[in-house]
Amino acid sequence: MARFSPFTSLFSWLPEKLLPCGQPASPTPPPGLSSDDRPKAIAWGARVSSDFKRKVVAIAARLDMNPNHLMAIMAFETGRSFDPAVTNQTGSGATGLIQFMPATAIALGTTTTELARMDAIAQLDYVEKYLAPYSGRMKDLPSAYMAVLFPRAVDKAADYVLFRKGSKAYKLNRGLDIDGNGLVTKAEAATKVLALLVEGKRPGLIG
C-alpha cells in the first residue's frame, strides 16, 4: 500500500529465486486482432481485462520493473481481487490496488474516497504516480514491494529489520515474524507476496 507505515495486510520478502514459468500456448487471435495486438501473458493476467494488462505492462516498462512483480503486489494488496475499492479490514483506511493510505492519496492529489470510485484501469495512473520515485530501483520483488510497504527499505539488504516487537507496526505485522524472534525483516516480509507471484503464474491464472 502506498505508505511507509504498515497498512493493509502483512508482507514477506525473500530474495527472488524464481525461474520463469512456462506459459500456455497462445490461442489464435480473434478476427481483426493480430498476435502483436494481444497483451503479453503475465501473472494473474487471467483475472483482469486485456486493457488492464496492457496498462500494467506499459507502466512496468516506464518504471523499469517486472510487470509480474507489479501484478503480484496488487494481488496481495487486494486479496487476489484486483478491486480498486477494496479497503483494509484493520480500519487503517487503506484503499485500492496498492492499499493507498489516506495521507498518501492526498499527497498524490486525490483521496481514498475518489480512488474507490475509480475503475481499476483509471486507478493504475495513481499506482504509477506513487511508484515513480522508485523507478529503476525495483529490480526484484522484495524491493518492489518495499516501495509499497516500507519505502526506506527499497535499497536495503534482505536482513534489514522493518518492525520490532513492542511497536504498533510489529503488532499489525507480527504474522510476518516467521522465526518468532521479535523482528520482521525485509526477507520475511516478502514471503507472502513471493508466494502469490508463483501462484499467479499457474495455468488458469497466468494470461
From TrEMBL:
Domain Transglycosylase SLT: residue ranges: 61-146
Stored SUPFAM superfamilies: Lysozyme-like (SSF53955)
One Pfam match: SLT
Origin superkingdom: Bacteria
Family the entry assigns: Belongs to the virb1 family.
Protein name: Transglycosylase-like protein with SLT domain
UniProt lineage: Bacteria, Pseudomonadati, Pseudomonadota, Alphaproteobacteria, Hyphomicrobiales
